[in-house]
Amino acid sequence: MDINYDAGAFNGPKGNAIPATGTYNVWAVENIFYYVFPTKFLGGNFGLMTIFPTVANGSLVADFQVPTPGGPTNLGITGGGFGLADLFLQPISLGWHLKRWDIQVAEAFMVPTGRYSPGASNNIGTGYFGNHLQTGTTYYITKNKGTSANLFTDWEVHGPRQGTNNTSKTPGQAVTDEWGVGQVLPLKKDFSKLLQFGVIGYDQWQVTANGGTIPLGPITAPAKYLPYYSVHAVGGQLNYILPAKNFSLFLKYEREYMSSSHTLGNTIVFGGAWTLVRPKPKPAPKS
Q: I need a surface site. Which of 16, 220, 266, 270 has the fewest CB within 10 A?
């Protein structure tokens, strides 16, 4: 899965753009491996997943105007780098396929294996451990399952991250959702080729205060006074599906239309998925 996030604006705590020039751009290639065991647990399918290696490349060039006792001051910020990002492990994943519902719950954590050094301008990793409690739900609106509504949620809890001047900050917990409403159309009468399209979006909120301290020039300050952030986006997605070959391609674009204490930009995601089934399913008996 290839992801690009590009932003050229930053909104303040009240959702209004603050004086700033520059851009923030990051590319990431996520290699995702998923395994589902043949036996079931609690009536559902049990699986595990890992995202590694993730190759990331980013750049940040920004000039913010901040108030100081002597008047507004321009704060120039530059950063970026190329390398392997953090390791994401999902050792517990349970999924149930019901008549009109598909439901999944998962527990995952992020290990800060990516390059991180306090104050460095080429960091790739986050510098902290993270715990992720996730859910995924699909409701099939029509009996033939051609029309569906989908919701994914992720509750993030972060560990401490070392900063400059002997400071340490624990980012506040965050909740993310991704939603979509889609329709499948057969490209061939035998349903060997399918096209799925729909409206999608995502939302993210910081829900608890930051912990620890942050550097402010020669002094430090409690991180709990930093404003909470949020961001909201909407867009569209296309999926090309070959059911018999267990193969699909996808492309989606989302534009952020509102944010607070956060950048405002665009997200592009594309990639593919292939499932290897072992042992191969037996063909249906001929009538």
A: 16
| pLDDT score for 79 | 63
Distances (CA, A) of 150 to 33, 141, 182: 22, 10, 8
Q: φ, ψ for residue 251 (rounded to 5)?
A: -145, 130
What is the separation of C-alpha 18 from the centre of its chain, rounded to a whole number of angstroms?
Answer: 25
Side chain identity, residue 157: V
Domain assignment present for 282:
no
Euclidean distance between CA atoms 169 and 275, whole angstroms: 41
Residue 286 DSSP symbol:
P
The domain tally of the chain equals: 1
Q: For residues 120 and 195, what is the distance between their CA atoms, to the nearest angstrom?
A: 45
- Overall average pLDDT of the 219-244 stretch: 94
CATH number, domain containing residue 22: 2.40.128
- CB burial string 49-67: b at 16+ within 10 A, e below: bbbbebebbbbbebeeeee
pLDDT at 195 over 90: yes
pLDDT of residue 75: 45
Q: Which of 239, 257, 163, 155 is nearest to 201 (CA)?
A: 257
The residue segments making up the domain with residue 175 are: 2-274
Q: What are phi and psi of 107, to 5 degrees?
A: -125, 125
235 in any annotated domain: yes
Mean pLDDT for all residues in the chain: 91
Residue ranges of E strands in the chain: 2-11, 20-41, 44-66, 73-84, 87-97, 101-111, 130-140, 147-158, 161-162, 168-170, 174-186, 194-206, 211-216, 219-222, 230-242, 247-260, 262-274
Q: What's the whole-model pTM score?
A: 0.89
Q: How confident is the model at residue 115 (pLDDT cuts 50, 70, 90)?
A: very high
Q: Which residue has the tokens 């986006």?
A: 233
How many Cβ atoms from other residues are within 10 Å of residue 147's Cβ? 15
